[in-house]
């Protein structure tokens, strides 16, 4: 009899254990979703991956995968540290062909399409000018390039259309071409991150690469909320609700720049003159749809920044951009009607 009682207690204990395990599993399954954030540093800037969901380990694993991809792209497309891109530039300077890969060729072809569409205002082939101004460096110092050096590089007229492709082998008809994808690769990285996260089945995510952001899904009842930085202050000029597969890109004069003789010299250079731009503080655009929303959010803001006040609207129309906000060097704000409506601002 005692053995029977003992057996019953063991059976009841096993049932209790099973019930506890099931309760724990159900509790975990019913736990409220929350935002898991992971930070890193690549492309010379801070990156952040926010994943909305209940599993911290799963979110951490996906974020780590994204950061590894960012690191791969950083080392492949770096403009001055040893990379596939610097090898390509060295080959171009020597007048030799270079065997790249399909990813490099596709990215350069896409960049050239934007360069042509923007009448050359977007021009990643002016790496020599960027280097002359000292912006191919992690430690930017004030300098004053000699005017004759600037004129010589502008006269050389390097363009991505100078490149020739034979499969994945790249050559150039112009040895002055030096490619710098600093205004393009971050957007490409956003799209690569989106592919990884969507393949991982995330409910929602927000990826931030140095102020360029791309949204996936919606975190709960409200869309992602992102701020547009005040280029002359510590806060935000406005907050935008960012929906699935929308990206925000900002080109500004407040991160990579130097001051000389009371003038601000940002890293964005007008390829027509070889001079830095001092009329614009920032340009913010919203892009959406397709597999390249991030790429467009990064590259398409540059021609508007260079076009400047009074001319950016025509360039926005040419590039098919409906949501744009430009902040001038004197803090004057200009917006497209679609951006004004989105921000809830009164019509002009």
CATH topology of the largest domain: T-fold
Number of helical segments with 4 or more residues = 11
Helix content: 25-40%
CATH superfamily name of the largest domain? ApbE-like domains
Rg, nearest Å: 25 Å
Rounded average pLDDT: 89
- What is the C-level CATH assignment of the largest domain? Alpha Beta
Strand order of the largest sheet: 1-2-6-7-10-13-14-15
Structural class: alpha+beta
Number of domains: 2
Per DSSP E runs of 2 or more residues, the count of β-strands stands at 15
Termini Cα gap: 91 Å
What general form does the structure show? globular
**Name of the CATH architecture of the largest domain:** Roll
Low-confidence stretches: 1-30
Largest sheet: 8 strands, antiparallel
Content of β-strand: 15-25%
Topology order in helix (H) and strand (E) letters = HEEHHEHHHEEHEEEEEEEEHHHEEH
What does this entry show, briefly?
The protein has 348 residues and is of the alpha+beta class.
3D architecture notes:
The protein is an alpha+beta fold and 348 residues long. It has 2 domains: 34-75 and 189-342, T-fold; 84-172, T-fold (Orthogonal Bundle), CATH 1.10.3980.10. Helix content is 39%, strand content 25%. The protein has 11 helices and 15 strands. The protein has helices at 2-29, 56-77, 84-93, 102-117, 127-132, 147-156, 185-199, 293-299, 301-307, 312-319, 337-342; strands spanning 34-42, 45-53, 98-99, 163-166, 169-172, 204-209, 212-217, 224-229, 236-242, 246-252, 257-260, 263-266, 280-288, 323-328, 333-335. The strands form 4 sheets. An 8-stranded antiparallel β-sheet has the order 1-2-6-7-10-13-14-15. A 3-stranded antiparallel β-sheet has the order 3-5-4. A two-stranded antiparallel ribbon has the order 8-9. Helix 2 (56-77) packs antiparallel against helix 7 (185-199) and helix 7 (185-199) runs antiparallel to helix 8. 40% of the residues are buried.
């Amino acid at each position: 009899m005692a053995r029977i009682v003992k057996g019953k207690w063991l059976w009841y204990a096993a049932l209790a254990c099973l019930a506890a395990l099931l309760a724990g599993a159900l509790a975990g399954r019913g736990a409220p979703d929350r935002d898991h954030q992971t930070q890193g540093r690549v492309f010379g800037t801070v990156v952040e991956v926010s994943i909305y969901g209940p599993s911290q380990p799963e979110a951490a694993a996906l974020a780590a995968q994204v950061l590894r991809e960012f690191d791969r792209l950083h080392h492949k497309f770096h403009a001055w540290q040893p990379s596939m891109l610097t090898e390509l530039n060295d080959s171009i300077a020597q007048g030799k062909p270079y065997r790249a890969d399909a990813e490099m060729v596709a990215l350069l072809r896409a960049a050239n399409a934007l360069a042509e569409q923007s009448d050359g205002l977007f021009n990643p082939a002016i790496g020599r000018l960027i280097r002359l101004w000292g912006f191919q460096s992690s430690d930017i110092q004030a300098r004053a390039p000699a005017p004759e050096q600037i004129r010589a590089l502008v006269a050389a007229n390097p363009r991505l259309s100078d490149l020739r492709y034979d499969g994945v082998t790249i050559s150039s008809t112009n040895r002055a071409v030096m490619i710098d994808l600093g205004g393009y690769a971050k957007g490409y990285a956003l799209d690569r991150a989106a592919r990884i996260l969507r393949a991982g089945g995330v409910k929602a995510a927000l990826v931030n690469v140095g102020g360029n952001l791309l949204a996936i899904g919606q975190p709960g009842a409200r869309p992602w909320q992102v701020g547009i930085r005040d280029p002359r202050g510590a806060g935000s000029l406005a907050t935008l609700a960012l929906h699935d597969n929308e990206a925000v890109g900002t080109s500004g004069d407040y991160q990579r720049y130097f001051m000389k003789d009371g003038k601000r010299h940002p890293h964005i250079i007008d390829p027509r003159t070889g001079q830095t731009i001092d009329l614009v503080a920032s340009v913010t655009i919203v892009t959406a749809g397709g597999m390249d929303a991030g790429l467009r959010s990064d590259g398409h803001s540059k021609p508007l920044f260079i076009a400047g006040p009074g001319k950016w609207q025509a360039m926005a129309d040419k590039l098919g951009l409906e949501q744009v906000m430009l902040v001038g060097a004197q803090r004057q704000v200009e917006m497209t009607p679609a951006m004004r409506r989105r921000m809830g601002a009164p019509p002009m």
